[in-house]
Amino acid sequence: MEARLPAHVEVSGLIRQVEAEGGFAAVVKKGQREAGTILVVLAEKGGNARVFERMPQPDGSRSWHCAKSQDIEKQQEFTEYLERRASQDPDLWILELDIANGERFIGLPPAIS
């Protein structure tokens, strides 16, 4: 099992990295300071939003995967997904990063458009 940074430290680091590169970052929902789960909403100029969440793997590690993509014609579904996840987990952090190729900040290759 891999060591985990406290959630607030990881969130703070992501915000600083994105802002240092000219992007926008904001905490949408603040979760449990030490061990809360983190959802990262990646967007580019306010659009093309995707939700990434780390999921446990059989080897005990946790890797990021895209849990939901925003459908431009069904934007309410995306908002409802975030609200549902937040209501299921009071310790959940939701962090929005608005920057090109945001996947690089969570260690993933850029999405193919």
Number of discrete helical segments: 2
Strand order of the largest sheet: 1-5-2-3-4
CATH superfamily: Protein of unknown function (DUF1491)
Named at the architecture level, the CATH assignment is 3-Layer(aba) Sandwich
Q: Which CATH class?
A: Alpha Beta
DSSP E strands, number: 5
What is the CA-CA span between the terminal residues? Answer: 34 Å
The assigned structural class equals: alpha+beta
Structural description of this entry:
With 113 residues, the protein is of the alpha+beta class. It has one domain (7-54, 72-104): hypothetical protein tt1805, CATH 3.40.1530. 25% of the residues lie in helices and 33% in strands. It is built from two helices and five strands, in the order αββββαβ. It has helices at residues 7-20, 75-88; strands at 24-29, 38-44, 47-56, 62-69, 93-98. It has a five-stranded mixed beta sheet, sandwiched between helices. The radius of gyration is 14 Å and the shape is globular. The termini are far apart.
